[in-house]
Amino acid sequence: MRMNKRVLLLLLPGLLFLAAFMLVPITLTIASTFVQDGKLTLEGYLYFFRDGYFNRILLTTLRVSVVTTLVCMVLGYPAAYYISRASARKKSLLLALSIFPLLTSPVVRSFSWMIILGKKGLINSFLVNTGLIAKPLDILYTPTAMMIGLVHLFLPLIIITLLGVMENLDHELVRAARSLGASPFAAFRKITFPLTVPGLIIGGILVFVGSLTAYTTPALLGGKERVVSTFLYQNAMTLNDWQAASVIAVIMIVITFVVVGLMNAWANRLNPKG
Amino acid sequence: MNKLMTTGLALALTSLLAACGNNNTAATNGAGTDNAATPEATSAGAPTELVVSTWGFSEDFFKEAVYAPFEKEHNVKIVVEIGNNAERLNKIRQGSSDVDVVYLSDYYAQQAINEGLFETIDRSNIPNIDKIYDIAKAPLGEEYGPAYTVGRLGIAYNPALVDGEVGSWADMWSKFDKNLALPAITATAGPMIVDAASLVSGGTEFNEDGAFTKLKELDSNVVKYYSQTSEYVNMFGQEEIAGGPIMEMYFKDLQAAVPDAKFVAPSEGAYAVMNTVNVVKGSDNKELAEEFINWQLSQEVQEKSAKAKVDSPVNTEVVLTDEEAVGVTYGAEVISKLRKLDMSFVNEHISVWTDRFNREIGG
């Protein structure tokens, strides 16, 4: 493909903006973590990785993000599929409904969940009043509450991404498979699913990165459990330790890249031509 | 290509979401719309601009009762910058703002002083200082600004959920059953809880190890270490907690949710919570800023804000009825019993305490 060189100039404003406001600050942040007292060192990182406490926070964060991503995939896929097959009018209504959680602030959303999940909340009142359980369950202020809040927050992202892919799906292919004797499930497994894998992966990456870096929801719903972003906030804002905060930020960036790489590899295995 | 785009997208999102973490840093112009049209401004030339950095709670009250009369009298236009203590202090640290007057809690104000970010004040320009409680006159030294409000941290509780009456800090260890909320170590009240735990552990001198052993004992009874008072109020209303340490000014919100709620000043002493006003180094309007501080300390402003239950008064001339004094830290006797933490000491130890709190307790 040949491109007119002058057309490339159109990219320039965007690139300059990204360079000035993203690449430069990120590079500076990363560089600053390797320097301590004027010397080049890995001490900042070694300190964190030798520290059992930090490793525990990191593991909690990863566990919460992975579970949130998987739950979003499982819930989002059928929802997106249903929406993509709905009639045009129904589709816009359903789409608006599924985007709705993104339109309220995380603070409002988290406070609503507190009312639903609390000891005297809707769920526990219902379960206790109907005699299903004797004592209220501890849901609020646990990692489970964090995951519920995050799934609520990020489900729209995966639905929207999947919808984009599913709407471009050529249903003639499915019909061809059926006419050649494939069962509905086989047609789904061999045709629909592989073709929608890219959407699932991109949506999954968005959800994972979002959960990894989310701050408000874990801070409000998470109780005593910490996640990396709340730890980072504590270091930067209250302790004014920007060095430690930068190290944590770089660790988060690296994790993001590793996970994106792994998910892309997985996508390639499921759909080699994607 | 596809892979590259995904990676870029993910990275962009990481930074985007990270930036969303503090979504209220943007400076807002609190005064502009209301007062731009006042005729005084035109008759006496262009008004001077005074930039005030503050939290942003009860914004309407401040606009009407504090800023507007001052603007009128001094031909000033007050521009308000809003955010929490840490955010606003960081902005001043970066030197990227032109703030003249800054409201900060004593803990953060001490940090600013240590880093030389404040002007020393000329007390002769702030005559109202003579009318305020001694504790508020120079909480961080004679050279720096006064506390314009002194509140107190005590214990609030829901009598229906607690065994008997709560009367001391030590009662937190005996009368609550898995339904206590404590302030997070990094919250304003966090260091006060460390001090209270040290008191309960015995001895008059501050004892760090004793305090942390005590706090560890208490941990299994704590539902949540709260950073925002709104979390506490919500948990209290939902009966998620039976109570815990909280500032008196928020008691009215607790009462609205649980009419029987009680607030006590523990027998060992409630803690003084002080908010200071200071002039930022490099301000072009130092004298005007000092006049503003004087106005904030005046009987008129202090009484209005006490009656509106916005801030507890420090001006000794303020008179409140019993009803008006509910939820307000008021009266020379109350003030004289408060325990005051040494903010230099707290600032020196806070990173060690935070680290120990994180590791040994949970927070």
Summing up helix and strand content along with how strands pair, one would put the structural category of chain A as mainly alpha
Find the count of extended strands of chain B (DSSP E, 2+ residues).
Answer: 9
**CATH class bucket of chain A:** Mainly Alpha
Supply Rg of chain A. Answer: 23 Å
- Indicate the structural class of chain B: alpha/beta
Average pLDDT of chain B, to the nearest integer?
87
CATH architecture of the largest domain in chain B: 3-Layer(aba) Sandwich
Oligomeric status of the shown chains?
heterodimer
How many distinct helices of chain A?
A: 13
Total strands of chain A: the figure is: 2
Helix content of chain B: 40-55%
Detailed description of the structure:
- The complex is a heterodimer of chains A (274) and B (363).
- By secondary structure, chain A is an all-alpha fold.
- Chain A is 77% helix and 1% strand.
- Chain A has helices at residues 5-8, 12-32, 43-49, 52-85, 88-103, 106-117, 122-129, 143-167, 171-179, 184-213, 216-221, 228-238, 242-270, and strands at 35-36, 39-40.
- In chain A, strands 1-2 form a two-stranded antiparallel sheet.
- In chain A, a hairpin with a 2-residue loop joins strand 1 (35-36) and strand 2.
- In chain A, helix 4 (52-85) runs parallel beside helix 8 (143-167) and helix 10 (184-213) runs antiparallel to helix 13 (242-270).
- Chain B has 363 residues and is an alpha/beta fold.
- Chain B has two domains: 24-150 and 274-333, Periplasmic binding protein-like II (D-Maltodextrin-Binding Protein, domain 2, 3-Layer(aba) Sandwich), CATH 3.40.190; 151-272 and 342-361, Periplasmic binding protein-like II (D-Maltodextrin-Binding Protein, domain 2, 3-Layer(aba) Sandwich).
- In chain B, the strands form two sheets. In chain B, strands 1, 2, 3, 4, 7, 8 and 9 form a seven-stranded mixed beta sheet that branches. Chain B has a two-stranded parallel sheet with strand order 5-6.
- Chain B: This is Extracellular solute-binding protein.
- Chain B: It comes from Paenibacillus phytohabitans.
